[in-house]
Specification:
With 369 residues, this protein is α/β, with parallel strands linked by helices. The chain folds into 2 domains: 193 residues, Glycogen Phosphorylase B (Rossmann fold, 3-Layer(aba) Sandwich); 162 residues, Rossmann fold, CATH 3.40.50. It is 43% helix and 17% strand. Helix 9 crosses helix 13.
Length: 369
Amino acid sequence: MNIAIDISQSIYKGTGVATYTRNLVKSLLEIDTENVYTLFGSTLRRQEELLEFIGSLPKAKAFTAKLSLLPPTILDFLWNQLHIFSIDRFVGKQDLVHTSDWTEPPSRVPKITTIHDLIVYKYPGSLPNSIIEIQKRKLAWVEKECQAVIADSESTKKDIVSFLQIPEKRIHVVYLGVDAIFYPQKIDSVLNLKRRFGIKKNYLLCVGTREPRKNLQRVIDAFKELNLPDYQLVIVGNPGWGTKIKSTSNCVIAGNVSNQDLAVFYSGATCFVYPSLYEGFGLPVLEAMSCGTPVVTSNRGSSAEITGERSVVVEPEVVEDIARGIRIVLNWSAMDRKKMISQAIKHAKKFTWKKTAQNTIQVYKSVIK
C-alpha cells in the first residue's frame, strides 16, 4: 500500500498530539516492511521544526516527504470550510490517507483519522472558541468521509459514537505507547534536577498544559488543605490558556521541560497527581507509572481505564477527594508502596509504540480490504 500521513502537528512539542504523531510515524518506519509512506505537512513559520522531525526518522526505510508553506488557518479555510483542493494533487497517487487532528482534506482515496478526544463537545469551556470551531468543522467531514476512525481508548470510542453518531464498526481502539526514556532514574539525577529547579523538599508532581481541563487549581487547593510543610508541589507543562492559577508559596512552576528532565521529575516525585477533568488517553499517567511513581488520577475519561487498579482514583471536581487520594499514597507503608510501584511498572510495559504501530497497520489493511 501507498500511505500518506499528515505530520503537521509533530511540531507542537509538549502536546499529546505531537507525541503521538512523532512516535507513530517513527515506529511505522521501523517495523513496516510492506507499505510505502509519504509524509506531508504544512506550516508557514516552523518549517525548520518539520525538517528536524523528518531528519530524525529512521533511515533504514525509504519514505517521501512533501512540505508546504501554507499556515494552519489557510488550510482550515480551504479544507475544513470550503472543502476544496484534494490532497491527492499534493501527495500523488496513494491507496490511503491518514489525516491529522486539525484538518480534513478531500481525497478520492479512502481516509482514516485519529480522534484523541472530544473535548470540544464534552468540555467546550476549557478551550478557546477558535479551536472549538476548527475542530467541529474537521469532525463534521470525518463523520461524512472517513472510512475508519482510530480512537485512543474505549472511553473516546464511546464519546465518538455518542457525539458524532459514527457506527462502532468504523471505530478502532488503538492504545498509545510510552517512550523508552521513561524509566526509574538514578538518585543523583534527581538531586541534580532538584538543585537546578530550586526544589528543596520532597515533592508532589503535576504535569500538563496550564488550562482548565487539567484541573490544576483544585490540585493546588488540595495541597493547601493537606498542609504538608515537608513537601512542595511541582507543576510541569506549557503556560496554556484560561484563568491564571492561584499558586501557593510551596509551589514550583517548572514550565515546559525536555523528556529527559521529565523522566527525572517523575522518578523523584513522592506522588504524581493527575485529576484531569477529561482525557482521551492521558499519557502522563503511564509515563509516571513507567518511572515508578504512584499515581492519583481521575475517575473521568480514560485515565482509570488506562491505569486499571494500579492507581488511586478520585472525583476530580471535589478538592477534598483529591486531598484524600494524595493522603492515601502518603500513608502507604514501605511494603505497600513497593508493591504498587512494581505492579505499575509491569503494567506500563504493556503499552509500547511498536504495538501502537502494529495495530495501526491492521487498521490500514482493514480499510483497504
